[in-house]
């Protein structure tokens, strides 16, 4: 992975580390929406949603044409795909580790303590 | 993966205490804490909340070493374990960090293991982005302005 890829992944992960932001991204995955539309189902304030959108914009995950509540926000999917690929690659990593865990458990038998 | 996190569920034919021991005991980790093609050559940890863990994986063909580590966040034997995870590259930059949550539930005479891995951001990194306390204070200011009571 290049240094640029690593930096992008760091920014993407920072953006993804908040559950509200992940929920916002999930909403935008089904199409662009205004800030009001995005904020509607949340129990946090519109200002909080707006701040989260700023973080997502800074990470290049969301594009917004203007600082106006009625302008739509849209998803930029490429960094997310990279993040999903990266975390998805762990699926094999852990499944293989758990396979080893399973085999190892069998060798331990009942005389483990 | 709409929530950008990884969830894996696996059943083991041993009770939760035995499965938990495979996570808790550093000697046991050497036997399984790696994917195929790598072995766990070293595993050390301070097994308590806030304690650090570190592992060196080694390529079976190449002999090349990969370091990883993190800190424990929750230790609740035999049912819950949570820790951060990052690859350690040459010291200062651990790369993207994830948080891993493991839940072990008794299932007949075996164990159902739920494994969840999601992106994680430390408080330091959050503050570097201008969030953390700054955001809390901003939020408080917004609420005062709008005449509402803070909820938390």
3D architecture notes:
Chain A has 113 residues and is mostly helical. Chain A has 6 helices and 2 strands. Chain A is elongated, with a radius of gyration of 20 Å. Chain A starts with a helix and ends in a 5-residue tail after the last helix. The relative contact order of chain A is 0.13. Chain B is built from 4 helices and 7 strands, in the order βααββββββαα. By secondary structure, chain B is α+β, with helices and mostly antiparallel strands. Chain B has a 7-stranded antiparallel β-sheet with strand order 1-7-6-5-4-3-2. The longest helix of chain B is centred in the last third of the chain and has 14 residues. In chain B, helix 1 crosses helix 2. At the A-B interface, helix 1, helix 2, helix 4, helix 5 and helix 6 of A face strand 1, helix 1, helix 2, strand 7 and helix 4 of B.
Per-chain topology:
The complex is a heterodimer of chains A (about 110) and B (about 150).
Chain A: H1 3-16, H2 19-29, H3 35-39, H4 46-58, E1 62-64, E2 73-75, H5 77-88, H6 90-108
Antiparallel strand pairs in A: 1-2
Helix pairs in contact in A: 1-4, 1-5
Chain B: E1 6-12, H1 16-24, H2 26-32, E2 38-45, E3 52-59, E4 65-76, E5 80-88, E6 97-107, E7 110-120, H3 123-128, H4 133-146
Antiparallel strand pairs in B: 1-7, 2-3, 3-4, 4-5, 5-6, 6-7
Helix pairs in contact in B: 1-2
Largest interface: which pair? A-B, 43 and 43 residues
What percentage of residues of chain A falls in helices of 4 or more residues? 55-70%
The low-confidence runs of chain B, each spanning 5 or more residues with pLDDT under 50, are none
The coarse overall form of chain B would be globular
Count of DSSP strands of chain A = 2
Beta-strand content bin of chain A: 5-15%
Low-confidence stretches of chain A: none
Helix content of chain B: 10-25%
Annotation, overall tally of beta strands of chain B: 7
